[in-house]
């Protein structure tokens, strides 16, 4: 399809196609070589919110494919500071680019952007909404590390209320034959609307605040940061921060892997990093081949 706004814009076949194409891209990304399949193409990158992995892996992906990027990493270096509105900015960059990647703190921004330009728009995170390209690399990581997605038991842990990565991932996993557990403090449960959609799709969910109850049976512990920046009341964040801390002692003697979209604060101890459990750095690397696959597929099919 033209735009990537929500993971629900993809069918299971679309997802599997991108994962297969990512496998073909991985050797290029791993060997740090360049192909010329997007030579002459320009990706517009509008990051109104901070990012390390998403922005830089999109940039690396575009450059590995022979294309180039323009854009800004902070709204305060753009004409937004002079009062320019989002519509005008997106329209202008749409004229300069072959596709736009946008991150914004307001839910729905990517969809709105796609309504004002003709070029494809990719959602790189819209507030507490969705982060569909993160989900594709999450699925790719599961497939690469565990050899499959079907039949896994995936436990989503942490801030399930404001965490956009888990919102997209839950919808994607529902397309596969997986078991899902949602582990969060009561205040940060998965939004009712998402649980309702998943139940409607026939997925049964185990919701709990007890991480110990899912350790033995899970294949993947997908841990998330508590999203401090989304709390309307800083006091509420102070009460909940540090709700879960995954350390080596907690996971040793299990068969699971630990994933995290990163950045982490203190929810995964450094002593997990160099164990067979910690897969989050490998996961972050897969952002490059997966985004190469996405960019090729979207920009090629738009022509
Ligand atoms: N996972 C992720 O979105 O990381 P960044 O915020 O660094 O882009």
Automatic annotation (TrEMBL):
Its EC number is 2.1.3.2. Residues 2-143 form the Aspartate/ornithine carbamoyltransferase carbamoyl-P binding domain. Keywords: Pyrimidine biosynthesis, Transferase. L-aspartate binds at residues 82, 164, 225. Residues 151-297 form the Aspartate/ornithine carbamoyltransferase Asp/Orn-binding domain. Pathway: Pyrimidine metabolism; UMP biosynthesis via de novo pathway; (S)-dihydroorotate from bicarbonate: step 2/3. It catalyses: carbamoyl phosphate + L-aspartate = N-carbamoyl-L-aspartate + phosphate + H(+). It comes from the Archaea. Gene3D superfamilies: Aspartate/ornithine carbamoyltransferase. InterPro entries: Asp/Orn_carbamoyltranf_P-bd, Asp/Orn_carbamoylTrfase, Asp/Orn_carbamoylTrfase_sf, Asp_carbamoyltransf, Asp_carbamoyltransf_Asp/Orn-bd. Carbamoyl phosphate binds at residues 53-54, 103, 131, 134, 262-263. One of its GO terms (biological process) is amino acid metabolic process. Catalyzes the condensation of carbamoyl phosphate and aspartate to form carbamoyl aspartate and inorganic phosphate, the committed step in the de novo pyrimidine nucleotide biosynthesis pathway. Belongs to the aspartate/ornithine carbamoyltransferase superfamily. ATCase family. This is Aspartate carbamoyltransferase. The lineage of its organism: Archaea, Methanobacteriati, Methanobacteriota, Methanomada group, Methanobacteria.
